[in-house]
Pentatricopeptide repeat-containing protein
Amino acid sequence: MRRAGAAPDASTFTFVLKSCSRCHSPGRLPSDLHAQAFKHGCLGARSEHAHVQNALLHEYASRSAVDDARRVFDEMPVRDVVSFSGLLTARLKNNQLDSARMVFDQMPHRDVVSWTAMISAYARASRL
């Protein structure tokens, strides 16, 4: 794509980030894509940028990179249920139940996915 002179856009980064989680790509790839998305202006406040930010957050979460996921979350100008679920997933994946509960409590809207994740985590921790 770069050799052809075409610049990636928000859709490109969203697609590539989602593909990363399916192919178990090398550990540095999300941070490299994060840097490229920033360089190409795909992490701003526009609605299509939210898809890139959420995909990035979920990719970091899937790799247990909680600090990176939190950084993306904190830098997001607009957060939705997908954003909160990504951070919740990162916390739960790293057995940070109390931190996950704080994220859950801050969610403006809790859906069946977030409720199921929290109930399952409490059950696994024998804290029901």
About this structure: The domain at 10-124 is CATH 1.25.40 (Serine Threonine Protein Phosphatase 5, Tetratricopeptide repeat). The chain has one domain: 10-124. Residues 8 and 40 are 7 Å apart (CA to CA).
